[in-house]
Amino acid sequence: MAVIQQALEECGLPKAAVQAIENPDRALVTEMLRLDRYIDMLIPRGWRGPA
């Protein structure tokens, strides 16, 4: 995230324009997907864990 935040600042954008959510709770992701009036883009990533 530090590299992304630095690049944002260099382009005159606020560091907070891009955020990473570390909470793996799928219910949180589902709720955030419903907040389309407030969140412009959400990139959910999946992880199955060890096989």
Automatic annotation (TrEMBL):
Return the EC number. Answer: 1.2.1.41
Fetch the Gene3D superfamilies from UniProt: Aldehyde Dehydrogenase, Chain A, domain 1
Please verify whether the record's keywords include Signal: no
Which principal EC class is assigned to this enzyme?
A: oxidoreductase
Asked if Repressor is a keyword of the record, the answer is no
An example molecular function term from Gene Ontology annotations? glutamate-5-semialdehyde dehydrogenase activity
**Database matches in InterPro entries:** Ald_DH/histidinol_DH, Ald_DH_N
Q: Which UniProt keywords apply?
A: Oxidoreductase
* Name the UniProt record assigns to this protein: Gamma-glutamyl phosphate reductase
> Its encoding gene is what?
proA_2
